[in-house]
Every structure is written in C-alpha cells, then in structure tokens.
Amino acid sequence: MITLGKSVCVVELDGSRLCAVSAVLSKEAVEVRRWLSAVRPETVSLEQPEALGEWVAGELARAGISRGPTVLAVSRGDVVLKRLSFPGAGVSEAELGGMVRLQMGRQLTMPIEAVTIDYAPLADGPDGSRHVLAGAMPADRVAFGRQLISSAGLRLGRIGLRCSGVAALLGPMSQTRAGTVVGVAVGWGSTELVVVEDGQMVFARAVDAPRPTSRAEVESFAERVAVEIKRTWMSYRAGKPGASPDAAVVLGSGDLVRRVGERCGELLGTGWQVLGLPGTIRVPPEMPDSERSAAAPLLGLLLETVLGRETLDFASPRRAPDRAAQMRVRVLGGAAACMAVVMGGFMMSKVRIDAVEARIEDLETQRKELASEYEAFLVEHAKLGHIQQWQSAGADWLGHINVITGQVPQGGVALAEDLSGRLSAPVAFVPRGAKPGSSSGRYPDGEWTSSPAAVFDFRGRSMGRGIATQMRGRFLSGEVYTVETVGPDVTERFSLQLKTARTKLDAEPGGASPPRRSAPGASKPKESPKPEAPTAPAGEGSASTEKEVQP
C-alpha cells in the first residue's frame, strides 16, 4: 500500500533497460530525490527473477535509492485491457465485481484461474449504465513480479501499468479540451500509446519501438510511431465512430519528442503538442531530458496516488464479493421462503419450481455456449498443430547437393548443368491407439505426423552414354535415391530424377557420413519461401505441401 509522506520507489524493466525513480509523496506534489537508468548485462537472464532481483538490488544501492514501498511498472503488452459496460440499476459493488470477472472470463483465451483481474470505475453513462476499465494479467507474470521485488529486498506496494501513468499526466489536458487526446510516451525499450477522454484512459497499446540511440534514427522512429498512433486511433474508433482526436501529445522534451509530435500530428490531421512534467512533479534540474521523458510514465503512477485516482493494481486487486455475506443472505432468504411455504403452500411451491426451471434453462444455454467455444478452440488448436508439424519438415539441401554432385565423374567427362529440388511434406493426424488406415479416435487425443520426401531434377552433359549409365549406377548403389530417366535418351546429355525419403543426411547407413564436396557446374540452391499451410479440420486430417529449391 502506497501512503503519503514516505519515500516511494518506482521500478521498471523495459527490455534490456532498468529504470527506477525514488520520490517523496505529499498532498501537493511528487518530489523526485534520485533516479536510475542502467542496461541489463547479458549474463542476467530475464527468465530468472531471483538473479534479476539481485542485479536490481545492486543497481539501486549504487544509485543510493533506499528500500521501501515499491511500485512495479509493467507494459501494456503484459495485460489484457477491456472497457466494459453494465446496466446500472440496482447493481451493488459486490455484484459489479462478479459481473466484471464473468465478462472478462468469457473474453479471455486462458482459464479464469490463471489470471489476476482488477478493474477501475469510469464515468457512468447518460442512461445510468456503469462503465469500468478491466485488466487481466497472467498469474505467472504477477508471481514473477512479486519474486523479482522480493529478491531485490523491496516491499511490493503496487503493480501498475505505464499507460495509467501516461493517462494521469494527460488527464488535466483532456478535461480542458472538447475532444479526445492521444498520448505518446517514448521509453527505453518500448513506446506507450494512450487514448484519454474526459480525464480517463479509454484505450491503450504498447509497441516494441525502443528509443533511438542516434540522430540518424530519429526520422525513421518518428515515422514508425506516427503509423502506430494512427493504428491506435483507428482501433479505438472501430467500435466508437467519431472525428479525429483533438490533439496528439508527446511526453517529454527535446528534438526527438518534437519530431515525433510533428509527424503524429501530420498523419492524424490534427494539432500536436509536447508536454513536459506538470508543476506537481518536481525533479532535480540536473536530470537529463532523455531521463525525464523515459521516467514520465513512472512519475505519472506516483501522481495517481497524490490525486487519489481510481486505478488498476494487480498486486492488490479489488476483493471478490463477500461470500460469507452472500451465504447469510441466502440463509435468511431460505428461512423467509420456508415461512412463505408454510403460509402460502401451493403458490410458493409453484414459484420455486418456476425459478428452478428457469435456472435449468439458463444453465443449458450456458452449456451450449461453452460447447460451441470449445469446438472453435479445437479447430484453432488443430490449425496450429498442423502448421507447426508442417513447419518442422525440412531437408539437408546442401548435403544432398554434395552427395549428388559427388557422383559426377571427374576429368571433364561429365558436366552438371542444372540441379533443382523440391520437398513434399504431407501432414496427417493419427488418433492415439488407432490402427493404420482407421479413422477411429477423437481429437485432440493423438499426434500430428508428416512423411517428407525430396525430389531432385539433375541434368547435364556427358562424353558418352556409358558415362551417364555409370553415374546412374552409382546413385542406385548408394541406396539413398531411386533414379528415373526423364526426357529423350540423348548420347551427349543426361536428365535424371532422383527421389528419396531421407531428407536429413546426418550419416550414411552404417555410420559413414555422406561426401561433402562440390562439383564443377553445380551451384548452391536457394530455398523458396514456404507456401501457406492449408487449414486442418478439428478432427483427423492430412494435407500435402511442397517446398522447392532452385540452383
């Protein structure tokens, strides 16, 4: 829990960069005391929170940042955000929390038990409807953050979103304008894009666009951010048609943010503005512009506490409805129902029967919806399995070329002119326990299999028919290829088609490695782009795909 009057630390890991700010919060301002920006060594893995936390602790100690309540800032890309609306009449806060959880569970692709859900109320609609901004963060990411902060010797006070900090800085500006403000916050490893309306964040995206390290990259970076902010605005307006935003605002100062603002304003066809830190955030004068720009979203998270804004916190999400209170209400309702049964008899029994039947109908409808969603999931799962099996197919093209060209007689009696190859990789789903050729079994209980085969067209010139015949015999004696003569039988030319199921040539039968030498006239093949994989059905199925190389 973050409280006023104490020193608070905000920590962020943005790609390979650690950014941290230490500040003291009061009722009037956020006063920055120390800041830190450090590049993560390659020896410290992002997948090991203990080692990462030890490195963070060392960097904080070197920067003189004291340990205390800590806010862990995470990117918008780590969280699923949804703006939800509910009828407002007669909905309590406990019921609202349950409705948010139920609605988010229907829109997520992972089990509801595997995520941490929190929500922040938004302004109610003109018709009294309730609006909330709900977020779902994978539980393993929350656990990772807790372990990271614990290993760094810090006390976790909150897990917040960088985009929420951006919205806190843009909120006062959006309230003074008639339209919507689109904000940009350029970070060390990524860039946050936020849509703020009437002082509240209504849409946000994060893109992997790291801050440029040289002036030569500024123009291309500004162009990319402008394209992404255009996509952000189109995505937001897809479900809410309207005019262009009132302004494009870039947080920070300096030539980089000004160029980004100019390009965003041009592409959106609206005004643009560079927004520095407000007067309520006090930073040391020696803090560089680049550090201020990168730390702006972190300072915005602290400003939320000063302003008392409703915001998301995945370390302490809003509590679930009080189950004990619900149970007490049910017990009292049951007692009242028993009294009504005693007094009313038949009429109350009829009412309860109707209620049970209605509940059964609701459950049946829910069961059908879940069954339909499960079938759709199996279809997507089958497509993914088919594509992954198809992509795993491949051939040792260089090895085959060395083997094939190695059979050309030396001394100029034969010359290879053209060698091309292609790969056929049929993919099929085999149910577990099914007999060959049988279609019994149920998806996904089984596995995807493929039977790749390579075909090579080999043409060239020879000094005589006997030389071509001798070369054909060499291929056959190697027991790797089947050989077929293609085209007219001409004395001074040969044209062979070689087929093999051995797409990998790690070793010859018996442990001998195939020859790895190039022959005159043969050139290395280039692998053509893979064709799109055909869609596989939800159950058993197969498809054939070819890959081709040309010399």
What would the keywords be for this entry?
single chain, 551 residues, alpha+beta, Nucleotidyltransferase, domain 5, 3 domains, 6-stranded antiparallel β-sheet, 23 strands, disordered C terminus
Quaternary:
single chain
Q: So what's the CATH class of the largest domain?
A: Alpha Beta
How many distinct helices? Answer: 11
Question: How are the strands of the largest sheet arranged?
Answer: 8-4-1-2-3-14
Helical fraction: 25-40%
How many strands?
23
Q: Strand count, sense and closure of the main sheet?
A: 6 strands, mixed
CATH architecture of the largest domain: 2-Layer Sandwich
Radius of gyration: 33 Å
The N- and C-terminal alpha carbons lie at a distance of: 66 Å
Coarse shape? extended
What structural category characterises the helix and strand content?
Answer: alpha+beta
The structural domain count equals: 3
Unreliable spans:
507-513, 515-551
- Portion in beta strands: 25-35%
Mean pLDDT: 82
Fold-level CATH name of the largest domain:
Nucleotidyltransferase, domain 5
